[in-house]
């Protein structure tokens, strides 16, 4: 009987082990293994003591250990994993897992900030006392930076709370993901909110105006790769525009852009987008400068404005054909792996006589099949049934403060062409 108990217990523990392996969550895995040990080991001991004499007990432990070692072999683990896979896993769609990553990035924000600031402080204290006294302000700025990071963190928590509620993300699920995630996803949202929705319109006007003039009086407009959606709302506010479909396949971007309730909460908040940029400030205060959001264009559009629909979709997979009167692409076409596929899809989406207006750089991704120069791009467009009606150029920083001494700006090309 005792041998049976020993075997059963090792079976259970190995099965539990494979089940948790399948879920691939390091913290949860550790938690469950600990649980197994906490419950199964005392239970096995209790059963063994109750049902065996001392001699049997020794044999029981030896058999159990040998059996346990055998059962932890790869083959046994694979068998148990296969069985475990038949059990339902928590459902996860691509959008949900991207949102989960964002939530984890937000959860680890404070920790990451703490590490960065602590390191900066340690470096500061490498200066001798006299040198430290010569730049007390610099040290104070670090402390202030840390305080303002807390405000960014509170802001991000609002986004996380909304995501957790909407996607029914459990605390354990969040804890189960690797908490050493970088702040990148969280910071990207801050930078894009500032790019699209800061109260100060100046930089955006330069970008939007040449595009908007081609979208006027176009009933249906498509904005692929819409980011956080400001261009789509500006297009919708134009005379004669009835519908704007804004397409985005980055789940966090889509989630924020499409979430009115959340936008309402975020409206008029102040963000600090330069806190991770420690160098190149003419004036230290500029690094700590706050930017206030104005989301009124999305929340209270003019009564005669067109409808904006933000859609979570891969632009290349859109099935509509000959549907839109205008397509506005901003900082988008170079996201293509195959630029020809993008241009063909743009063409399919537009009606005959429809307008494609584009403005942005040619900063292709690392795996682009062909990195066409502007000349080559124009040559292809002209040879494939488009009539180019306007070309222009500009420069744009994309994001980052104009007060920084470091100016990285794209030279960008604009063109408008008609589908013949
Ligand atoms: C460089 S960002 C520009 C965002 C926005 N147009 C702007 O100017 O702020 C490019 C955007 O296109 C999105 N994107 C890239 N390829 C896409 C695709 N195939 N379908 C939908 N969105 C896409 C990315 O997720 C990203 O948000």
Automatic annotation (TrEMBL):
PANTHER family: AER338CP, CARNOSINE N-METHYLTRANSFERASE
Pfam families documented for this protein: CARME
GO biological process: methylation
Keywords annotated in UniProt: Methyltransferase, Transferase
An annotated Gene Ontology molecular function: S-adenosylmethionine-dependent methyltransferase activity
Record protein name field: S-adenosylmethionine-dependent methyltransferase
InterPro entries listed in its UniProt record: CARME, SAM-dependent_MTases_sf
């Amino acid at each position: 009987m005792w041998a049976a108990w020993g075997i059963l217990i090792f079976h259970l523990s190995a099965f539990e082990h494979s089940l948790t392996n399948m879920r691939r969550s390091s913290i949860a895995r550790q938690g469950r293994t600990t649980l197994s040990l906490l419950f199964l080991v005392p239970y096995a001991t209790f059963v063994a003591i109750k049902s065996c004499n001392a001699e049997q007990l020794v044999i029981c432990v030896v058999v159990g250990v040998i059996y346990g070692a055998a059962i932890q072999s790869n083959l046994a683990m694979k068998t148990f994993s296969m069985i475990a896979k038949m059990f339902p896993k928590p459902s996860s769609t691509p959008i949900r897992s991207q949102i989960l990553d964002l939530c984890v990035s937000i959860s680890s924000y404070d920790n990451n900030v703490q590490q960065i600031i602590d390191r900066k402080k340690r470096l500061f204290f490498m200066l001798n006392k006299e040198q430290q006294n010569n730049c007390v302000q610099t040290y104070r700025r670090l402390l202030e930076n840390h305080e303002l990071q807390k405000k960014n963190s509170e802001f991000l928590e609002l986004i996380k709370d909304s995501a957790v509620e909407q996607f029914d993300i459990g605390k354990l699920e969040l804890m189960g993901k690797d908490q050493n995630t970088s702040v990148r996803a969280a910071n990207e949202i801050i930078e894009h909110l500032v790019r699209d929705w800061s109260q100060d319109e100046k930089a955006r006007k330069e970008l939007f105006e040449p595009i908007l003039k081609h979208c006027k009086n176009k009933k249906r407009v498509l904005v692929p790769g819409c980011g956080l959606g400001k261009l789509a709302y500006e297009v919708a506010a134009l005379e004669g525009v009835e519908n704007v479909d804004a397409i985005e396949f980055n789940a966090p971007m889509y989630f924020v852009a499409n979430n009115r309730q959340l936008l309402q909460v975020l409206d008029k908040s102040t963000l600090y987008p330069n806190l991770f940029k420690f160098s190149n400030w003419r004036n230290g205060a500029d690094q700590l400068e706050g930017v206030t959001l104005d989301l009124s264009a999305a929340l209270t559009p003019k009564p005669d404005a067109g409808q904006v629909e933000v859609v979570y979709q891969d632009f290349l997979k859109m099935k509509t054909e000959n549907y839109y009167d205008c397509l506005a692409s901003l900082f988008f076409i170079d996201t293509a792996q195959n630029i020809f596929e993008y241009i063909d899809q743009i063409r399919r989406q537009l009606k005959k006589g429809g307008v494609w207006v584009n403005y942005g750089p040619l900063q292709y991704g690392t795996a682009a099949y062909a990195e066409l120069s502007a000349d080559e791009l124009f040559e292809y467009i002209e040879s494939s049934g488009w009539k180019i009606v306007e070309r222009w150029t500009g420069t744009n920083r994309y994001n980052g403060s104009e007060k920084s001494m470091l100016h990285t700006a794209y030279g960008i090309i604009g063109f408008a062409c008609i589908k013949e």
